[in-house]
Amino acid sequence: MSATVLPQAAAPMKRSKLRRSIGDSIVLTERNLLAYLRIPDQLFFSSVQPIMFVLLFRYVFGGAIATPGMSYVNFLMAGIFVQTVLFGSVSTSVGLAEDLHKGLIERFRSLPMARSAVLFGRTLADSVRNVFVLILITIVGFLVGFRIGTSFGLYLAAFALLIFFAFAFSWVFAYIGLSASNSETAQLMAFPILFPLTFASTAFVPASSMPPWLRWFAEHQPVSIMVNATRGLMQGGPGANTGHWVMLAIIWSFIFLAIFIPLSVWRYRRVG
Amino acid sequence: MTAAIEAEGLTKTFGGDVRALNGVGFSVGKGTVLGLLGPNGAGKTTTVRVLTTTLIPDSGWARVNGLDVVKDANKVRASIGLAGQYAAVDENLTGRENLRMVGQLFQLSRKDASRVADELLEHFNLTEAANRPSKTYSGGMRRRLDIAAALVVRPPVLFLDEPTTGLDPNSRTAVWQVVEDLVENGTTVLLTTQYLEEADRLADNIVVVDRGAVIAEGTPSKLKSTLGETVLDLGFADTTTAASAINLFKGSWSAPPVLDGTMVELPIDAGPSQVMIALRTLDEAGIAPTTMTLREPSLDDVFLSLTGRRAELEEAEA
Q1: Domain coverage including residue A131
Q2: Burial status of residue B180 (CB atoms within 10 A of its CB: 0-12, 13-18, 19 or more)
Q3: Is the CB of B50 inside 8 Å of chain A's CB atoms?
Q4: Which of A230, B81, B100, B285 could bond to B158 as cystine, CB 3.0-4.6 Å?
């Protein structure tokens, strides 16, 4: 080794438990965002999929789907926004499964840091990523004919609600990521959860076209509620019942957080 | 001598039936190096995980710097460094970013973490590679970064889990040098290894583990003198020649020689001159070996003499 002496030890900061948790979460959020910047192709290809869904439904299926009260592209985009952030939460579970598999979580667990920080660092970084992807999808939407029917302010409100709902939902996937045996499994486990939730919903077609049993599910499950809230905020119109759906979407978000934050932290403490 | 690490009766069972630890216990004096020696699957890593608070034992207790690893886990974490096969660096981050992150997670301020990161990079000859993602590093560089990450707060106790496994000889020597420097400065080190040579060079005391239990302990020289020795392997053209060769040494040699097919294993416990005597004896009898190797005792030999069976080289260690 070199002739230099080892650095003098620096004194750790004395912080309250809460400030330490916040500080550690920020450090790990930065770390995850840096990793996203280091592999831009991953960011690129994860944006390609929602763009393809926009094009698929706008130009292939769209002509065959009747939507009351608004053009199909305006109906569709609310569904696409929700689908995009939900599918994005898969990266929460894949990222955590990878950290676990590569031994990073073992290192983190041996450090005097907040137990929840690894999980908050991941879910917060994925929220930041969602902001970029939502902006991108909005631009693509405008290019294929999407227009805001209400106001820019309400569009921003929908945007904020989407980010919050996705943040809450990504905790479900944090738990999955810590429970999967590897990142491939974590990815595969997402499909049977996300597929029925996004497609048996009001995201792409009105629930009225479904058989009664499926229609009941599609009208009451959280993804449809979030889609209805987004659609109401962005398009409005008679019978949109926006306030009702927004309230329910917020309640569902808190339900996800209340169940899956403690569950994931519990899992994190015992994992391995 | 006060102990920096103490463990007593540690047990851990995985998945109901895989008994990884079966009553491991030992003590490491302050400022000394303990080599935890054993084959894959012996329980080395599991022991380290308990001592570094990432795994809670089923029974038994352990203290690091006098702090209980279960009850005072977070205080223990603030005073230890961990490097090795199961504690990685982030390959998407650069060397500098990795060290800064670990520093901040050790609750250093951003400024202190940056300074310590730069100084460590320089100390470990990584300054030139500091701004490259660590996935571009060679195995030796990555291991140095890993050890640097364990040193950001100059912990009084350092755990190195198989620090040289998979490294080339040069990198291995470099890692040894780092450990020796640290010990000179008063750090207590627990290192796990599969190599007797490594434990011999670095450790003040060696604990040999097998199937989750301690099967021997002592200083390297004590273990070597009782457990293994240098062996001269002589190969002969056929079994008849080998048989007549071993007859030359039977009875007269310092330790009993072993016949294994066309091979004669001759223990050497009196230095190089004994090798000369062996060859001269063969020469006088007009027997020439076809192959000849001088072999230092390996973990395998230690195991053979301790357990009567070869070290099981299992792949997975929980």
Answers
A1: 23-62+69-270
A2: middle
A3: no
A4: B81
Q: What total of structural domains would you count in chain A?
A: 1
Whether A1 is in a domain gets the answer no
In a domain, A15, yes or no: no
Residue of chain B whose Cα is closest to the Cα of A118: B105
Taking the C-alpha atoms of residue B154 and residue B299, their distance in angstroms, rounded to an integer, is 32
How far off is chain B from A90, nearest CA to CA, in Å?
A: 19
- The structural domains of chain B, with segments of one domain joined by +, span 3-219, 229-296
Multiple choice CATH, B229-296, 3.30.1380, 3.30.70, 2.40.50, 4.10.410: 3.30.70
Closest by CA position to B253, among listed B280, B278, B226 = B278
For the record, the structure tokens of A155 come out as 């569009």
Instruction: pLDDT tens for chain B, 318 residues: list them.
Output: 589 999 999 999 987 778 889 999 999 999 999 999 888 888 999 999 999 999 999 999 999 999 999 999 989 999 999 987 765 889 999 999 999 999 999 999 999 999 999 999 998 889 999 999 999 998 888 888 998 999 898 899 999 998 888 888 888 888 898 889 889 989 999 999 888 788 888 999 999 998 899 988 888 877 776 665 788 899 999 999 999 999 998 888 887 888 888 999 888 877 788 899 999 999 999 999 999 998 877 666 676 777 666 655 443 333
Mapped onto helix, strand or coil, the DSSP state of residue B103 is helix
Query: Which of A31, A38, A111 is the closest to B77 by Cβ?
Result: A111
Give the one of A1, A9, A103 whose C-beta lies nearest to B154's C-beta: A9
Beta carbons of B54 and A39 less than 8 Å apart: no
Are residues B122 and A13, on separate chains, in Cβ contact within 8 Å? no
- For B97, the token pair is 């970013």
Kindly report the CATH number that applies to the domain delimited by B3-219.
Answer: 3.40.50.300
Under DSSP, is residue B7 helix (H, G, I), strand (E, B) or coil? strand
Of A1, A39, A110, the CB nearest to B53: A110
Tell me if A169 sits within 8 A of A259, measured CB to CB.
no
Give residues 77 to 96 of B whose Cβ lies within 8 Å of A.
Answer: 77-78, 80, 82, 85-93
Top residue of B90, B182, B189 to mutate, by most chain A CBs within 10 Å, is: B90
Q: Taking Cα atoms as reference points, which of B302, B49, B311, B63 lies closest to residue B198? A: B302
Measured between beta carbons, the chain A residues lying within 8 angstroms of B125 are 1-2
Q: Say what the ipTM of the complex is.
A: 0.87
* Residue of chain A with shortest Cα separation from B174: A1
- A264, part of any domain: yes
- A36 within domain boundaries: yes
List A residues 2-61 in contact with B (Cβ-Cβ < 8 A). 2, 4-13, 15, 20, 23-24, 27-28, 30-31, 34-35, 38-39
| pTM score | 0.82
How far is C-alpha B83 from the geometric centre of its chain's CA atoms? 13
What are residue B143's phi and psi, to 5 degrees? -65, -35
Q: Which residues of B touch A272 (CB under 8 A)?
A: 49, 54-55
Instruction: Output the six-digit token pair for A23.
Output: 């500080």
